[in-house]
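Protocol step 4 of 6: structure prediction from sequence.
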Amino acid sequence: MLPSRLLPTTQCVMSPSDEPLDLLCRKFNVAKVTLPPGSPIPPTIDMRVIKDAHVPSHVLAVFDTQESERGPSFQPIIVPIRADLYTRDFRKNIIPQSPPGTPYPVPHWIANLGGQYVTLPVVPTLVPHASSIPLLFLFALGLEPRSQLLYCRLLPSEVIEEFPAFPAMAESLARICADDQLIGHIRFNQGLWKNILALGPRDMEFIQVVQTAWNATVEARRIRQQAAVTRTSNI
């Protein structure tokens, strides 16, 4: 069992630069890449190197729709990853082993683009919930210690103040959220939890935080539904 790498906090402060995929790319010293909607997944991708330091070994083209369900808007999320870190921190292997003697990707200068780039092999990756994968990797790989960035993605700030008091969290969530906000939290937290079950991260405190948030959203939904039944029966 790995020790927790999260710094404790009950604050919820984020900036636009704290978007999980942007942060993940910066941690791996590369610029974010987006594929055009409907384009095929290429075998390799050139990512611009923004700092001469450790770079990824692979790119995951992450999606949560089966091939038969993809339309012209299909657009996987391009997620940089290092195979050694992933193998260390996750139980489910999703990155193919490179043949013996395969060199580690090395940045190179591309003159017509005016910068350093690294050419990375692309691994098409089907997951239960694509949009929460950058957040999962950011924290399960130990790349981001600021736990408020995790909490703020899972729950409103008023609910985080009650953490880890589960009943108070659920009551607060049911009270303050509009229906569409609660549905959004349920979908995201359920998706992240399904990714955890599918990929098996090893950081137990991170898992417990997400499980608590997921359980709180489920209980908040039950409270909201029970309140609706009560109102209907009183009419």
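Step 5 (inspection) to follow. The longest strand covers residues 115-126.
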